[in-house]
Write a structure and sequence with these properties.
Elements (H helix, E strand, L loop, with lengths): L1 H5 L2 H27 L13 E2 L8 H5 L4 E2 L5 H9 L6 H6 L3 H5 L3 H9 L4 H23 L8 H11 L2 H8 L4 H16 L3 H14 L16 H4 L2 H24 L18 H16 L5 H21 L5 H15 L2 H4 L5 H4 L1 H10 L7 H7 L1 H8 L8 E4 L8 E2 L4 E2 L1 E4 L7 E3 L2 E6 L2 E8 L5 E11 L3 E7 L2 E8 L7 E7 L2 E8 L16 E13 L5
Parallel strand pairs: 1-2
Antiparallel strand pairs: 3-6, 4-5, 6-9, 7-8, 8-15, 9-14, 10-13, 10-15, 11-12, 11-14
């Protein structure tokens, strides 16, 4: 009777739907990863290299194309370690904000060096992109515990797949996402009775981040704690810890200046103090701003982490994931203000706790609202999984000689600056959406004006006028009444230096379906054809 129920057409259809959702999640993931690729910089904008650190950065980084931001983040230091995988010497020690703190977390700098085959530009791209690789592998592994067989598994799997910590780790090229993969892999090996390999995997994880080593509790076998604290457990723990100890000793001995500012001292505090300070800060800032709607989402994000941790501590189970969840819940209690601040770092640090919660939380239907609330992190993660808009520059290297000035060795280029989305499509058919008022810059390196022809097909959601101004002068205007308009070829005279092209529409932008972007119009198959230089007599 049971087999008949499982194999009924209705059940088979349900399972097909669940599997389709899993496949759709991977397609969505691949699309978002692709959207983060920049035309000029690839993925090197992700580590958030800071303008202010460029002067003290290593020479290899200065010589390798990458994007710099006004605000920086930790990934910029681990990316430089990938270029200097021995982590030794005055140059790298000066470049890091805290040598011993950063250099002891070396593993994923090594993996980037290996993936980049020792070539600086490849290494930088590999370091920036490898989060996506480990994220994908983690998602594959999680199917073991959350297979697509029912609605609860499907929700929990999607919640794990797109939780905020993984999104933040990728979007800033940090260590937490790759670290999670190693912890999940260790859990898999230990559950399948390959605990010695699990211990070795945890040893690698410790080289990624020292806090990963608290997961050695997974090496405890089933049964009472006292009976598990035997020589075999001690030996496995030693295997897990030894690589970090040896590498850290190497880092300490390699330090020439003792460049170890107190980064990390605010990472830990008394139990609950960090979370409570964060709660008070959220309330104070929100009160000053009149409690905007985002306040409640921020509080829900904080609350979701607390719910996860409290549940795991209150309902211990005799399983690998329960032990992982408990130790990371204990870690949550003592995390300091620096980790809780802005609720950006803490979802990353507690990723193993989030996974453990979703695997272990009760399956009772009346508790589903708690399950949904505890995964507020996923709703925030999906909404923030968007690329940061950075200007894209197209150098006209393969165009006519008019695009090149031999005296300066410069080419004409087109740069999309304000109000544009990233380029979409492929070489045979491409487009770029405008939010309604967008600017592009066309640079002419020669000391003479040039005549060019701008061609494109406009695309709009609803009828609207599109207007083009060049250097403040009204050049062209047309009404687009249907989805795709006619192909327009607009003659322009561009002066030496920078030329500002402003495309705008007086009609407000709209949104399409689930796309969060405000969209007004798109330029499809846009192209500049350089025709001739303009003699001074004209």
């Amino acid at each position: 009777m049971e087999n008949t129920s499982i194999n009924s057409p209705q059940e088979r259809l349900k399972r097909l739907v669940y599997k389709s959702i899993y496949i759709a999640a991977f397609v969505f993931f691949a699309l978002k990863i692709y959207q983060h690729h920049h035309y000029n910089y690839g993925y090197s904008q992700l580590p958030l290299f800071n303008h202010d650190f460029q002067e003290r950065s290593i020479e290899l980084l200065k010589e390798t194309p990458h994007y710099t931001h006004e605000d920086g983040y930790d990934g910029q230091f681990y990316a430089q370690l990938a270029l200097k995988p021995l982590a030794r010497g005055t140059e790298i020690e000066t470049a890091l904000d805290n040598y011993t703190y950063r250099a002891r977390r070396i593993l994923f700098s090594w993996t980037a060096w290996c993936l980049g085959l020792g070539q600086p530009s490849w290494i930088l791209q590999a370091y920036s992109f490898q989060n996506a690789i480990f994220w994908f592998l983690t998602a594959i592994l999680l199917i073991r515990w959350l297979p697509p067989i029912n609605a609860q598994n499907t929700f929990r799997y999607i919640a794990c797949f797109f939780t905020l910590g993984l999104v933040n780790s990728f979007s800033r090229a940090l260590l937490d996402g790759p670290s999670l993969f190693l912890i999940v892999m260790a859990a898999f090996l230990i559950e399948t009775r390959r605990s010695w390999l699990g211990a070795a995997t945890l040893g690698l994880a410790g080289l990624g981040k020292e806090t990963n080593l608290i997961a050695v509790v997974t090496l405890l076998g089933p049964g009472k704690l006292r009976s598990n604290l035997n020589s075999q457990f001690i030996l496995k723990t030693a295997i897990a810890i030894l690589p970090f100890v040896l590498w850290f000793a190497y880092v300490i001995s390699s330090s020439q200046f003792g460049n170890s500012e107190n980064i990390g001292t605010r990472n830990f505090t008394l139990p609950f103090v960090g979370a409570f300070e964060t709660f008070l800060t959220i309330i104070k800032v929100a009160g000053d701003k009149g409690f905007p709607p985002g306040t409640f989402l921020t509080l829900a994000t904080l609350g979701s982490l607390l719910v996860q941790g409290i549940y795991l501590l209150a309902r211990p189970k005799n399983s690998v994931w329960s032990r992982i969840g408990i130790v990371f819940a204990i870690l949550m209690l003592v995390l300091g203000p620096a980790v809780w601040e802005g609720l950006q770092a803490v979802p990353r640090v507690l990723l193993p706790m989030t996974i453990a919660f979703n695997i272990l939380f009760s399956r009772k239907l009346f508790l589903i609202p708690i399950l949904v609330f505890a995964n507020t992190l996923t709703f925030v993660g999906i909404s923030s999984f968007e690329p940061k808009l950075i200007e894209e520059r197209f150098e006209m290297v393969d165009e006519s000689n008019l695009a090149y000035d031999p005296s300066t060795n410069e080419y004409s280029y087109l740069e999309f600056t304000n109000g544009w989305s990233i380029n979409e499509g492929k070489k045979s058919r491409y487009w770029r959406w405008s939010q309604g008022d967008s600017v592009a810059e066309f640079f002419v390196p020669r000391n003479q004006s040039i005549e060019v022809e701008l061609s494109f097909t406009p695309k709009t959601i609803s009828p609207r006028d599109i207007i083009l101004e060049v250097n403040g002068e009204h050049i062209w205007q047309a009404e687009n009444e249907q989805l795709y308009g006619d192909v327009y070829k607009i003659p322009l005279i561009l002066i030496p230096g920078n030329n500002t092209l402003r495309f705008y529409s007086p009609t407000p932008p709209e949104k399409i379906g689930s796309d969060p972007r405000p969209l007004s119009f798109a330029l499809v198959d846009y192209n500049f054809r350089l025709i001739r230089t303009i003699p001074e007599s004209e």
